[in-house]
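Re: [help] complex structure
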Amino acid sequence: MKLAVISCIHGNAEALDAVLADIDTQRAEEIYCLGDLVGYGPYPNEVVEKIRSLAIPSCQGCWDEDIVDGLNACECSYPSQLAEYRGRLAHEWTDREIHPEVREYLATLPLTLKKDNLCFVHGSPNSQHEYLLPSMDGFAALERVLSADADVLFCGHTHVPYERKLENAALSVKVGTAESGDRAQQLQEQQFQVPLKRVINAGSVGEPRHGRPNATYVIYNTDTAEVTFREVTYNYEKTCQAIVEKGLPPIFAWRLAKGMEFAERADDPSHVCER
Amino acid sequence: MKWAILSGIEGNLTAYEAVLKDLRQLRQPVTELYILGDVIGLSGNNLKNNNLQDDSLQNDNEAVIRRLRHPGVGQLKPQVCVGWWEEQCFSLHGLSGLPDAPELMAAVGGDGVKALWDSVSRKSVQWLRSQHFGFYELDCLLIHGSMASYADELTPETPAIELCDRLIRADANHLFCGRSGRTFECWVNPNQLHSTVTTLDGPQPTQDQSKTPRRIVGVGSVGRTPGQATYTLYSPGSNQLSFRTVNYGQAKKGKAKGFGFP
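Output below.
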């Protein structure tokens, strides 16, 4: 069975429509969404209404959370000071525009979705704010998959799609305890083998950062474990124009047209906010 | 160089004094004294019996804080980081975390919340707030829980991959922690991992990953178990680790016991 996994739509209705049309051509039987339905883009209400009307299961992203709870995270909500300054402007605009029922819907979104051996999250199983970059330590990435009790962990948040296979992992642990005044036990060694696990990042529908303005998402075949990255062209200039016309910071139009933004690169991608 | 690493006094001044006495009796003097949080608390185990009013608790958070701040002439000045109980206190006082300390309420109930509130002054809370989150010394991280959270409770039963993750986050060869209150050491050896990343540009070369063994040490608890304090001695130069158990009060049966790992 083919699944389509989409993420980080960010109020870009034009891109969402193009991706949904492309999913039809791929004959995917189910669609999962990894959150960040709103923020940055000019059509947050329309995007949420579309996702709801199609009954697409969705996780709550960090932007969705901020619209529900307010900007009460520590500085880790944004990967840099420049991104924070710009992000606040977008948050305030979205907070004003969002319909009450849309906010209520975002509040109901789960942090994690599961289907058999697949787990779907926005950032990581730890937090919507954690970035699982492809350069992350392999054992740390493996821990994220295992902590989700899954074989395949789908994530978004970085806006750049990738698949990471983690194979033939082996660990050993020597444990010694000295409890209740007893003499220390000898160190006892245990070996652990971990079968193949995968991290699959779905990219971004509405705010891509892979260097081109096209929307990205992934198709996953549950029978063959085949991953297909999809890059979909659409009329991004129309979205850019709407960003400017609706009073959002013009930088968001610029970077949507370029498909990149240096200010969005995280200094400490593994930082986990504790509110 | 020899470190004494303590955690979990939990307001039990008698236990702390017993450990200080044990330290003074060591043949090789301790050069640094670390306390990995939970200097305040409600004498842990007794809470399970809802025995908050029992005089035998000898709980005196203010006295412990005074002792830490003013160790006395010729005595080591402890280096203190914050633990779970301190974080609950900050939450109660609106200094960090969620308001109304829901973690604390779930753990000890309304009576426990009131007991903690009543037993630590605002001035002491401010002092606790000024303490460290953890210490990086040489190739060691000394911390209450882990870099994931102050509430992270690492034990010998924690899954191996989780221990490995905490060591990666620590970015240190030895992670000393106190959250569990237990004394243990775990050497974690990530032997091998093949990692292949595929992007829009195609598959990248497979990377083989392995790491040198690293260690997590549970340093014990000074005040949680009435009558028995445990703590850790560590010599960075020789990498020698030993755990000490100090019996005190009515539970005292003899001298402190120590046992080391090669």
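Chain A has eight helices and ten strands.
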